[in-house]
Design goal:
Blueprint: H1 3-7, E1 9-10, H2 13-18, E2 34-40, E3 43-50, E4 54-57, E5 62-65, H3 66-75
Parallel strand pairs: 2-5
Antiparallel strand pairs: 1-2, 2-3, 4-5
Protein name: Ribosomal protein L32
Keywords: Ribonucleoprotein, Ribosomal protein
GO cellular component, one term: ribosome
């Protein structure tokens, strides 16, 4: 199975009750949305974010918050 697909999760009621907002964009999650655990400017502990707000990094096999990737590109 593809590493990307293996990390993709459907937001369910339990996850929604513990993580109501996306730390990457600040918007509320909805039931049935695709989310992924991603690292970001909140530290190395992955948190659930909207899949479209994350970029899969092949080298590490994990998702990184899109805004962190964009910041690093601009600093290069």
């Amino acid at each position: 199975m593809d590493k990307r697909k293996a990390q993709s999760i459907l937001m369910d009621r339990e996850k929604l009750s513990t993580t109501p907002r996306c730390p990457a964009c600040g918007k509320y999650f909805s039931l049935g949305e695709r989310v992924v655990p991603a690292c970001g400017d909140w530290g190395n502990t992955p948190q659930l974010v909207h899949q479209e707000d994350a970029v899969f990094e092949e080298a590490s096999g994990r998702y990184i918050a899109r805004r962190c990737v964009d910041v690093n590109k601009n600093q290069s």
